[in-house]
Amino acid sequence: MSADHSAGVLPDWHELHIAAVGGGAALEHPLTRLARALAKLHRKRWPSRKQAVAARRRRVLVDAIDLWVAANVGVAVAETASVGALIDELTRAGACARRLLATTDPAGDAVHAAWTAVAVLADEWSDLVTHTPIHYERFNAGTR
Question: Among the residues of the chain, which ranges form H helices?
Fold first, then answer.
């Protein structure tokens, strides 16, 4: 995965997945750094009284992602979908899958379903990166 991370290039799903579920080498792309921060927030167990704090921190990171995309990739992607919302959902799904893997039967249906959800979101990311219009429309239509 020797992607060129010059302005206008989004990380591929492999890089984003590493950031979203944790592990792997240090990632240099601005979006993978932000995704790693989102994943860390999702992995933390927040007490009820701190849920609003976690939501605000996530919102700041999602907005930072969308601002970076608008400034570096171009308005077309930024207008099509919230890239930050997709990365937030991917990191949430990754945190859930890791938690289930650690706390339930690794061969169980819940773990399988959780990792399938991560895979579907990674596929959506790939489609977004390669500009597949049907996925843009689906994501933008509020099906999430």
Answer: 13-21, 30-43, 51-72, 75-80, 83-103, 109-129, 133-140
User: Which ranges of the chain have pLDDT less than 50?
Assistant: 1-7, 78, 132-144
In this prediction, residue 77 carries a pLDDT of 52
From the number of C-beta atoms within 10 Å of its C-beta (0-12, 13-18, 19+), residue 138 rates as middle
DSSP state of 131: T
Are the C-beta atoms of 39 and 91 separated by less than 8 Å? yes
Tokens of 29: 């792309």
φ/ψ of residue 4, rounded to 5:
-80, 120
* Burial of 92 from C-beta contacts in 10 A (0-12 / 13-18 / 19+): buried
Quote the pTM value. 0.78
From CA 103, how far away is CA 53, in angstroms rounded? 26
